[in-house]
Amino acid sequence: MTQQGTILIIDDEAQLRKLLARLLTLEGYTILEAQDVRSARKILDKSDIHVILSDVKLPDGNGVELTAQLKSSHPDIEIIVLTAYGNIADGVQAIKNGAFDYLTKGDDNNRILPLVSKAMDKARLQFRVRSLEERLGGKHDFSQVIGKSPRILDAVNLSRKVAATDATVLLLGETGSGKEVFAQAIHRASARTAQPFVAVNCSAFGKEILESELFGHKAGAFTGAVKDKKGFLEEASNGTIFLDEIGEMALDLQAKLLRVLETREFYKVGDSKPMKVDIRIIAATNRDLEKESEKGTFRADLFYRLCAFQIHLPSLNERREDVPLLAQYFLSQLGPKNNKRITGMSGAFRQALENHHWRGNIRELRNVIERAVILSDGPELGTDLLPLEFSHPENDGPAPLSLADMERKHIARVLHAVNGNKTRAAEMLQIGLTTLYNKIKEYNIR
Ligand SMILES: Nc1ncnc2c1ncn2[C@@H]1O[C@H](COP(=O)(O)OP(=O)(O)OP(=O)(O)O)[C@@H](O)[C@H]1O
């Protein structure tokens, strides 16, 4: 298989096959040829094919029917059907049967090449996703970190290196930039892979609750503590604990966490004996902990412990070249998940994604694609399926807005006004910090 992928051309007209083969070979694809369904099946048994170009009328079958059969036996292969001039009905039926699209014999190269390239992108992503799912049972590892930009590749390289050690890691990046994906990938690439990975969002709990969730408690430690309870640290024993939003942790809890980092020991709430735990710690934040430790809002000693190995995850705005790749990746996942047969995105849709300022990073992109997939009626995603702010970038879109839109925009403005300080934003909004975090997640606000 070459870098570009492998295409099988099924046509009984040798001359047409040769013509297409020559054209596509020049583009760097590997071409295999079959003159009928029987020989095509033989090739499919032996080779990894990404895209098939198939004639409708074949000596021993029909390309439109073959499409339906192949989409159930080889769902990751994308099929383009070659219809006779003027026979749109065949093309339409082929798409209904799961074809990526159809070409009319006689179409020029300007139509053939972009279409084949789109089908190839889609098929290759599907192959990649499938092989990962098979290998990992759906879990994250580095091959599931989509992106080719130098910045993301740097982050992956660093993470791979540190994964082999037991070092504490601090992941830095904006919300939705993939900190949890990286934490999981580091765990999976480490010697602890068969042991638990426990993720804790430190902002999701009030201070007392976080302490007992993290360290566990003894029966009778406080009202309602009827039984001994294991904490997340104990649950993650021999594995990895991922402490997300560590900047939100209260100062006295930070002191207790520092003790874990230094001695691998902690006290359950209400216990006088320390517990030992063998654990790897990965922490993450979207805040500037160095600044906060200078101001005294984050413990400097804990910061120095954590920052020994920092990995900065680029925001999506810093790696715009990855936007189309990620969009295509989500489309190939979310189309089937939502029972939609969507073959691609219009050029304008793609452009709008590339121009957008992504405050919620990859999470926002994923949600934009999912929304578009759910709303779409046709085979291609167009700009009409994009949310309002795409046409009104500065959040000043005219009415009508739903109540949810208003809430989202208001929260985003307040956050902007306080430079992203969530504690202050929650105060201004007069809501709890946890509620604010839930809303930020729900609305993809950064
Ligand atoms: N490189 C990537 N390739 C593919 N999907 C990704 C990648 N990075 C993140 N995602 C997806 O984006 C979403 C957000 O990722 P994740 O939860 O890891 O971000 P985060 O930085 O931990 O966010 P938060 O700070 O809000 O906790 C998830 O759906 C995740 O699967």
TrEMBL record:
4-aspartylphosphate carried by residues: D55
UniProt entry tagged with the keyword Chaperone: no
Keywords: ATP-binding, Nucleotide-binding, Phosphoprotein, Transcription, Transcription regulation
SUPFAM superfamilies: CheY-like, Homeodomain-like, P-loop containing nucleoside triphosphate hydrolases
Signal peptide: none
Domain Sigma-54 factor interaction per the UniProt entry, residue ranges: 145-374
Ranges of residues in domain Response regulatory: 6-120
Name this polypeptide is given: Sigma-54 dependent transcriptional regulator
